[in-house]
Every structure is written in structure tokens, then in C-alpha cells.
């Protein structure tokens, strides 16, 4: 068999998985290798690609994070802020289509996965009525009162599809453990001052808030968003509860879907990354 013939099946698999074409230039930027692509491909969960190696460490993002090398604490936070700032901002209406791609159901391309319920629902049911899904601001938009004009309110690193009623029940609650289970979203708990998301997205929620605190430092016309160890923050530009978020980041490690989402946002929409998906250990370094 010639070299070319041996390589052909791999090319076919990559083409089928939908990754080969867009990955050529993106790989040069992010350094994502073919094994990473295979591991994060929708086909990987039970298909032939699962035979390829497990998720390789994203060592090639070293170039992206070069300015943060060797830093810790406040210096690390500042360096990451410089690296992830100046991103391409979407309009609030552009967010709909972006979420249809970043949160697409790998098992059904016509659907998106909803954050708090893990339900797969038709992309076309985006809207504001009961039965629709809408754009959940995981960093509640009233915390800093930034609204939905271009900026933190349209930053898809923290925007996720959610059921309209569940989104409304979460409202602008801070995050913390405890409360009563919310019947329409089993596994999620809430009380008067906090919301506890289901276990599978606890880390996702934490890493989205870490990103927001670092991306928005008050130097570009947007509020300086910060974590604190409280609940009931109301309209102050703070979000809690820091200790619970750090615990959730350790409990629920980064998975392939989260990594893929970060890649899509970086390559196609905002051209910046969530550092805490690439390096979850940095959270404990910045907020000890
Ligand atoms: Ca509470
Ligand atoms: Ca998770
Ligand atoms: Ca900040």
C-alpha cells in the first residue's frame, strides 16, 4: 500500500466528522492537533474515532498564553486580561445563530442542548414563549447592569441556551449550594438568594464566571466585574459565591464539549479564549 492510500481512510473519517476543512488554518492558530480534533468530534462518543488517542493536553495554546507564562495571582489575572481583551463583539441578535452552533447537540444537528436541563430542543424554538429556549446570561446581566448592547451582555463565553421558564426562575440569583429542587429542571436547586446548577454543569458555570471577572476590568467602558464570596449581590457588579465556584471548578472538570465550544468561539466568533477552560488550575491561583 502506498503512503497516500494508507492515509486516505483517516482523511475520510475527518471529512465525515466535519472537522478537516475548517481545521487547516485554525490548527495553525491554536495548534490543535488531529488527535484533539478526533477526541472532541461528535463522532468520538461511540464511533470509530474513539479508537484514536484520548484528549491530548492543549500544549500548543502556549503561544496564545505566552504573556502569562511564569505569572501567578494578580499578575496572572492582569496578563490574562490583556490576552483575552479586544475580542470581536457580537450584536445581541447575532448571539442566536452563534449559540445554535456553539451549543448544537452532537447527536442531532437540528437541536441545541439547554444548560440547566440538558434537554435537546429544536434550534428553531428560540424565542420568549413557554416552550422556547432563550439566551441565558450565566453572569446575570443585572450584576453590573450591562444590558444587551455589544459587550458583556453579548459575550457568548457566558451565554447559553436555556428553557425560558428555567431561565426566568434562575433570574439574577448568585450561585451557591442548597435550596429546593426546581421541578422543571431536576438536579438544580434554589432558594431566595442563590441557584445551584446540576452537577454536570457546575464547573462550566464556574469557569464562565471566572472568564467574566478577568475579561472585564473596567478599562474599556464596561463595568469591572468581580467575584465575591457572597450571595444576594443584586445589581452590584459582583457575582458569588466564589468559594462554591472554586469548589465546582474542581468537582466538574473540563470536558470535550466545553473545549469544543471554546474552540468555536475562538476560531469563528470572538477570537478570544476562556483561559479557565484551557487552564482550570489558574482559578485557584488567582482566587486562593
Ligand atoms: Ca442560598
Ligand atoms: Ca461539566
Ligand atoms: Ca474584573
From TrEMBL:
The keyword Hydrolase is assigned to this record: yes
Alphabetical keyword list: Hydrolase, Nuclease, Signal
Signal peptide: 1-28
Family annotation (Pfam families): Endonuclease_1 (PF04231)
InterPro entries for this protein: Endonuclease-I, His-Me_finger_sf
Protein name per its UniProtKB record: Extracellular ribonuclease Bsn
Native source species: Bacillus mojavensis
Lineage of origin: Bacteria, Bacillati, Bacillota, Bacilli, Bacillales
Amino acid at each position: 500500500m502506498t503512503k497516500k492510500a494508507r492515509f486516505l481512510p483517516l482523511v475520510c473519517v475527518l471529512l465525515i466528522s466535519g472537522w478537516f476543512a475548517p481545521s487547516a488554518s485554525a490548527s495553525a492558530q491554536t495548534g490543535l492537533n488531529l488527535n484533539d480534533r478526533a477526541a472532541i468530534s461528535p463522532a468520538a462518543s461511540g464511533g470509530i474515532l474513539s479508537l484514536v488517542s484520548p484528549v491530548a493536553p492543549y500544549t500548543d495554546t502556549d503561544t496564545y498564553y505566552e504573556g502569562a507564562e511564569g505569572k501567578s495571582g494578580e499578575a496572572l489575572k492582569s496578563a490574562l486580561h490583556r490576552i483575552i481583551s479586544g475580542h470581536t463583539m457580537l450584536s445581541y441578535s447575532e448571539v442566536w445563530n452563534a449559540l445554535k452552533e456553539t451549543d448544537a447537540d452532537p447527536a442531532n444537528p437540528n437541536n441545541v442542548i439547554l444548560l440547566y436541563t440538558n434537554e435537546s430542543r429544536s434550534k428553531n424554538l428560540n424565542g420568549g414563549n413557554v416552550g422556547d429556549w432563550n439566551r441565558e446570561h450565566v453572569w446575570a446581566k443585572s450584576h453590573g447592569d450591562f444590558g444587551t448592547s455589544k459587550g458583556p451582555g453579548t459575550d457568548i463565553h457566558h451565554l447559553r441556551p436555556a428553557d425560558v421558564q428555567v431561565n426566568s426562575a434562575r433570574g439574577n440569583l448568585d450561585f451557591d449550594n442548597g435550596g429546593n429542587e426546581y421541578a422543571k429542571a431536576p438536579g438544580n436547586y434554589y432558594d431566595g438568594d442563590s441557584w445551584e446548577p446540576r452537577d454536570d454543569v457546575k464547573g462550566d458555570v464556574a469557569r464562565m464566571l471566572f472568564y467574566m471577572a478577568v475579561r472585564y476590568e473596567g478599562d474599556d467602558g464596561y463595568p469591572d466585574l468581580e467575584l465575591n464570596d457572597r450571595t444576594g449581590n443584586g445589581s452590584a457588579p459582583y457575582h458569588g459565591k466564589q468559594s462554591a465556584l472554586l469548589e465546582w471548578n474542581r468537582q466538574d472538570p473540563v470536558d470535550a464539549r466545553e473545549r469544543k465550544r471554546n474552540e468555536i468561539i475562538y476560531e469563528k466568533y470572538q477570537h478570544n479564549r476562556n483561559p479557565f477552560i484551557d487552564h482550570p488550575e489558574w482559578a485557584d491561583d488567582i482566587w486562593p
